[in-house]
Amino acid sequence: MDHFNYGVIGNCRSAALISDRGSIDWFCFPDFDSPSIFAQILDKNIGGCFSFVVDDHYSVSQKYIEHTNILSTSYSSIEGSFEVIDFMPLYRIDQQNSYFQPPEIYRLIRLKRGNPRFRIVYRPALNYARDEVINRIEPKYVKTFSVQNQIDTIYLYSGLDFEKILKGEEFVLIHDEFLLLSNNEKLIRIDQNRAELEFQRTRVYWMNWSNRSKKYTVYNDIIERSILVLKLMSYQRSGAVLAALTTSMPESIGESRNWDYRFCWLRDASMSIETLLLVGHQGTAKRFMTFIKNILKRKSDTFQIMYGIRGERILTEEELPHLSGYKNSKPVRIGNDAYHQKQNDSFGYLMDVIYQYYRYFPGTLDEIEDMFEVVKNMVKTVMDDWEKADKSIWEIRGDEKHFVFSKIMCWVAMDRAIGIAKLLYKDDLAQQWLKTAELIKEDVLTKGWKEEIQSFSQTYENLELDSSLLLMEAYGFIRPEDERYRKTVEAVYRSLRYKGLMFRYNNTDDFGVPTSAFTICTFWMIRALFVIDRQEEARVMFDQMISYSNNLGLFSEDLDFETKTQLGNFPQAYSHLALINTARLFTDSEDLSRFIKP
Question: Domain check: are 129 and 140 in the same one?
Answer without folding.
Answer: yes
